Amino acid sequence: MIFPAQEYRDRVARLQTAMGARGVDALLLTNPADLFYTTGFLTRFWESPARPWFVVVPGSGAPIAVIPSIGAELMGRTWLDDIRTWHAPNPVDDGVGLLADTLAQTLPARGAIGVPMGLETHLRMPMADFERLRARLAPRRIVDATDIVQRVREVKSGPEIDRIRAICAIAGRAFARVPGFAAVGRPLADVFRDFQIALLNEGADWVSYVAGGAGPDGYGDVISPAGAQPLQPGDVLMLDTGAVKDGYFCDFDRNFAIGPASDSARRAHAALWQATEDTLAALRPGLRACDVHALLWQGLEKQGATPASGRLGHGLGVTLTEWPSFTPLDQTPLRAGMVLTLEPGCMLGPGRMMVQEENIVLHEHGAELLSPRVPAELPEVLA
Amino acid sequence: MIFPAQEYRDRVARLQTAMGARGVDALLLTNPADLFYTTGFLTRFWESPARPWFVVVPGSGAPIAVIPSIGAELMGRTWLDDIRTWHAPNPVDDGVGLLADTLAQTLPARGAIGVPMGLETHLRMPMADFERLRARLAPRRIVDATDIVQRVREVKSGPEIDRIRAICAIAGRAFARVPGFAAVGRPLADVFRDFQIALLNEGADWVSYVAGGAGPDGYGDVISPAGAQPLQPGDVLMLDTGAVKDGYFCDFDRNFAIGPASDSARRAHAALWQATEDTLAALRPGLRACDVHALLWQGLEKQGATPASGRLGHGLGVTLTEWPSFTPLDQTPLRAGMVLTLEPGCMLGPGRMMVQEENIVLHEHGAELLSPRVPAELPEVLA
C-alpha cells in the first residue's frame, strides 16, 4: 500500500459523510481510479478488459471488495478485510450474483445505491450485467453519485500532493534531457521513444501517456502518436506526458524550437507564458472553472494571441485528467487542495497551434507550481 | 493509418454482414479497441476519461465518427469522411444530441441499434447519457451486439497477424536482455523499469502492461506492480508484458531462476513447457475454448503438476486480452485466424505459482508460434 490505512479511512469517511447528506446508502464503484482511491489497489491489469471489479462502500465501515479471484492476493495487501471473489470471466454469472448479494446485505430493501453516471464517468462493467443487477436489487434504487465521488476526490490530501509533486519533478528532469535527443533529422517516433526512456530513467514507474507533434511554427493537434517524419529546421516540437509514480500522474508538456525559432513562434510562446503567469497570480479558491477559462482566454487576447478552442486545463491526480474542466460552461468552484493543470493554447495559423501546460496545487492563498516553470523564452535545440 | 483503407472496408463489410443476419440496423461503438478496429484511429489519449467518443456503423457504407473536436485532426487522417464533432466536455450536452441525430438519420424509426453489452465488454460513456440517448431514440431499440463484434474481431487478417508477430519479436528480444539486468540484490522495481526500457529500445511504441513477481520457487500472483524488495538467490522471477507496436499487443511472460534453480522450480517449468508443447500439437479449429482449458489442465496433471485455477489463456490483438477465455465454461469455437495465448500455471506450494505464456496464431492445419518458444529448461541468471 502506498499510504497508511488511515489515509484511506479518511477518504472513505468523507465519502460516507457526502452519502449521508444525499441519502445514498451504499456506493458501487467499478473503475480503476475509484478502486485505487478507496482501497489502494494498484495494478496495470486494468489494461485487460476481460473482467469487471467492484468495490462497495457502505454507509459506515470499511469498503467491501467483490473481485475476480486473480486479484485476491493483491487486494489482500490493501487495508480491506472483506474481499469476496469469483472465478472470472464466467459467461453464466460474471460476479453479478455475488455483487447483488453483497449489496442486498449492505443496504435496506428500499435503499439507494449510488453509482457515478455523470460527466467524465463511465461504468466499467458489461451493460447487460448492470441491467441484471438493477433488476435483482429492486426495489432498491440506483442513483447518480457523480457529485459525491467528484467533490471528495477533487480535494487532494497532503500525501497525495506529495506524490504528484514527485512525478512532476521526474517529468521535469526528463524534459530537461530532450535537447540531448531531439535533433534535426531524427524521426518523431524515435524522439517519443527516447522521451519515454528518459522518464523511466528519471524514476517514473511507467508512462501511461505520451503525445506530441512537430511542424513549422506549431502542430496540428495534441493527442497524436508519433509518425516516422524526421524533425526539420524551423519545427516546433511539443512533447506532453502523463507519467506515473505510485499511481499518481503528472500531465504537462514542453515546446522546443528545432533550430532558431521564428518570431511568430517566439511571440506565441511568450504570450502563452504571460497568460499563464497572470492566471497563476489570480488563482484563488472560490473562482469557478469557467472563470479560469476566462482568465486564460483574456490573457491570451491581451497578448495579441488567438486562443485555441477547447478546454484550457483540468483536474489531475489518479488519472491523467480529472474534472473540473476549464471551459466556458463548467461552473465547478475551485477549492483549496485541488491539483490542476493550466493549459492555454493559441493558433499560429490554420492547423498550427502551440500549447503550454503547467501543473499546480491550489492553496487558500493561491497557486503553488508542481511542474518546473516553463522558461519565459522558447528553448531552441540547435544542431 | 496503419493499414490501407481496404483493410478497414473489409472489416466493416464483415460487421455489416453479421448485422444484417441479426436484424441490427446500426452499431454504436464507444471503446478504444472498437474505434481503432473500424477506423484506424490510434491515440493514447484514451487515458483521459474526460470525453466519450462514438463511431456509428450503418447497415451499409462507411462508419460515421461522432467525436470531441480535439480529435478531429487525427480522425481526419483515417479513412472516414463523415466526422461530426462537438466541444467536449460539455456539462449541458456532451455529444448526446449530435449522436442521437446521427443515429436517427441512419436507421429507421423502429430500427435496432446494436451495442456490445455482454461478457468482456463495457460501454465507455456516462451511464446517464446512455439512458438519455435511449429515451431520445425510442421507439428504436438498443440490442446486444457483443456476438456481432466479437465474431468479426476475433478472426485476424494477415496484416493484423503480421503486426502481432512484429511486437512478439520485439518482446522476445527484450526478454533475451533480462539476464543483463536481473541480478541478486536488484530491487524488483528497477528490474521492471529496465525491462520497459529494453522493450522501447527493441522497438515497442509504448508499454501498456508490465507485471510480474519474484519469490522462492514462485510468486503469489501475476498482476502486481513491482515492489522495492531486492531479488534473492533462489527466487523465481517472472516478467509479463503487453507491449504495443502500431496499436497491436503481445502478451507473454518468461521465468528466470535467480541463482541455481531448485529441483521443484525446474520440474514445474518443465511440466508447463510439456503441457504447452502437447497442446500446441493438438490445437485445431473446431475445438472449443473449454477444450483448450482441458488440454492444458490434463497436460499439467499428466506431468504431475498441480494446475492453477483461473483461465489458462485467451484471445489477443488490439487489446492486451480478448475473448475467448480458456476456462471450463467458455464454449466459443476456435477458428482459423484467431490469435491466442496459452498460459498454463501451476502451484508449487501455498501462494507460490509459476505461469508460462506463449502467443500463437491458429491456422487450418494447427498453431503457429508468434512468441519465441520458452526454453525447455528454466533459465538461470547467475551472479
Helix content of chain A: 25-40%
Q: Estimate the global geometry of chain A from the Cα principal axes.
A: elongated
CATH homology-level superfamily of the largest domain in chain A? Creatinase/methionine aminopeptidase superfamily
Number of strands of chain A: 19
The main pleated sheet of chain A reads as: 6 strands, mixed
Strand content of chain A: 15-25%
Instruction: Give the low-confidence spans of chain A.
Output: none
Q: Please, what is the oligomeric state?
A: homodimer
Pfam families (chains A, B): Creatinase_N, Peptidase_M24
Domain Peptidase M24 (chains A, B): 163-362
Keywords (chains A, B): Aminopeptidase, Hydrolase, Protease
GO molecular function (chains A, B): aminopeptidase activity; metalloexopeptidase activity
Structure description:
- Chains A, B: It holds the Pfam family Creatinase_N.
- The structure is a homodimer of 383-residue chains.
- By secondary structure, chain A is an alpha+beta fold.
- The first copy, chain A, folds into 2 domains: 149 residues, Creatine Amidinohydrolase, Chain A, domain 1, CATH 3.40.350.10; 224 residues, Creatine Amidinohydrolase (Alpha-Beta Complex).
- Chain A contains 10 helices and 19 strands.
- In chain A, a hairpin with a 2-residue loop joins β8 and β9.
- In chain A, α7 packs across α8.
- The radius of gyration of chain A is 23 Å and the shape is elongated.
- Chain A starts with a helix and ends with a strand.
- In chain A, 56% of the residues are buried.
- The mean pLDDT of chain A is 97.
